[in-house]
């Protein structure tokens, strides 16, 4: 079936008693055995829940995988994926990754004996040069957060396969509607479903998806053993949100392109980071590996051209908040918000500066969004 059909139909019709057209919320924590040695299909909700299972079936299909594990948060998904590795392993990843991911890697996982190298993931030679005998994984986040750098997924996968290295891709910014890393050879896809897949800023959830069944089993064991699964109500909310994912992503993209073009022409703006702009250094690569450019962008204002506090105070539609991917438009300063957990030298090395603002473009009228930014920039 087509993506739009699968988003609405796949995995959701599980009510055999009343034939509900929506997936019921199975809130039971445990399920009765008929007798010793005869467990029911679900026996305990941490290990398996019908509502969560329906969401897993749906998302695995949308990502082009065979197995999905649903977690309570996006960081729960990141945690489950990184626990595929062991002390002594070495992981290659990008400089410009989500601040929460960087914090997990640089503090918790490093203390557990896993080594990380933070590179410019657009430099294939640098990736090859960083590979060691103990390199076991390459962590891809594309587009990068918050600079919207694009990593050539196929090129990284080729390097990884030549060296028998596992590849993991964070697909949160694009969602499976605009980018399908598994089809480009990636082993594991991570999603923060808090963002576009749910799309309404009313739930936190994550997912880890694989095409290989045995790898999916390993992920499922980690999620169950570490107590990471999503609850039934949150799973229900994401199932509701995913039905409109294709239409929302098209609306986000159309608005984001219009806003990016406006900002690029504004005299107070130094640079706009949006892969849909021909001026983006990875525009052609984005066109090759993505079917759309998404709803995220960032921009830097020219130093001294505006007072950031006055600019933010003037905004009426854009809300100063972390997160992204909801129907409402958000703005944040990564330097002091989403990436504050990164030490200042790491932020500087990644190209993150105080003048950078990240925008999650919502589904409001695009002329209103542009007018809101124009008024604030002139304040």
Please tag this protein with its features.
single chain, alpha/beta, seven-stranded mixed β-sheet
Please describe what this structure looks like.
With 379 residues, the chain is of the alpha/beta class. The protein is built from 14 helices and twelve strands. It has helices spanning 3-9, 50-63, 74-82, 99-111, 124-130, 153-162, 175-178, 213-225, 232-242, 245-264, 283-289, 308-314, 344-350, 366-377, and strands at residues 67-71, 90-94, 115-119, 135-141, 166-170, 188-192, 206-210, 269-273, 296-301, 319-320, 330-332, 356-360. The chain has a seven-stranded mixed sheet, with helices on both faces. The protein has a five-stranded mixed sheet with strand order 8-9-12-11-10, with helices on one face. The longest helix is centred in the C-terminal third of the chain and has 20 residues, at 245-264. The radius of gyration is 21 Å and the shape is globular. 47% of the residues are buried. The model has no long low-confidence stretch (mean pLDDT 97).
Based on Cα principal axes, name the global outline: globular
| Rounded Rg | 21 Å
The strand order across the widest sheet is: 1-7-6-5-4-2-3
User: Roughly what is the average pLDDT, rounded to an integer?
Assistant: 97
Bin the helical content: 25-40%
Main sheet properties: 7 strands, mixed
Number of strands: 12
N-to-C SSE string, H for helix and E for strand: HHEHEHEHEHEHEEHHHEHEHEEHEH
Kindly report how far apart the N and C termini lie: 50 Å
